[in-house]
Design brief:
The chain is 31% helix and 18% strand.
Length: 185
């Protein structure tokens, strides 16, 4: 006679064994604790038969698998499922994609170029371009020089003052639009 064994702790199906005849009564069999006569149902993927109140029930089983919650898109590794049961609400076995609005912010920040000081920004220019900027009598370049002289802190490639200064350099013929694009990228 076939017996279907289950765990004392979790109730999960652990395997089959053959019942042994009762040595005291030859026509009956010994049924040990945590063994059932009825076969468990066949589980689908991520399911396991569990003995509950004398009957087999299929439960979700994701043990050992990683899952992610919707806000865990930056986590390389998910959380490992430790117990029999459903995944937490809103959890997925696939790492979630970065939300569009956050990805757009990241893309913008990645595209942004930063110079840590005005002198670092000046290093983008050749000596000839620096000389032309310093000696020009063009009013727009004089304004750009003044802004740079008073600048404190980081210089960003998307700052309107930088863009207008570079546009003035293009208008004055100090640099061309291709050179402007190269400085900003």
């Amino acid at each position: 006679m076939k017996l279907y064994n289950y765990s004392e702790d979790t109730g999960e199906f652990t395997g089959e064994t053959e019942a042994r005849p009762d040595p005291m009564e030859g026509d009956t069999f010994l049924i040990p604790a945590r063994a059932a006569l009825d076969a468990p149902p066949t589980p689908s993927e991520n399911e396991i038969p569990v003995r509950v109140d004398g009957a087999w029930v299929l439960h979700s089983d994701y043990r050992g698998q990683e899952f992610w919650l919707p806000d865990e898109y930056d986590d390389e590794k998910g959380t490992k499922m430790k117990d029999i049961g459903n995944l937490p609400a809103a959890a997925s076995l696939n790492r979630p994609a970065v939300p569009d609005e956050i990805q757009a912010e990241r893309d913008f920040a990645a595209a942004r170029k930063v110079w840590l000081s005005v002198s670092e920004f000046y290093d983008e220019f050749t000596e000839a371009e620096q000389y032309a900027l310093q000696t020009s009598t063009d009013p727009a370049l004089i304004v750009a020089r003044g802004r740079l002289a008073m600048w404190r802190g980081d210089v960003w490639n998307d700052d309107p003052r930088i863009i207008s200064g570079l546009d003035a350099l293009v208008s004055a013929g100090v640099i061309n639009s291709t050179r402007r694009a190269a400085i900003l990228s």
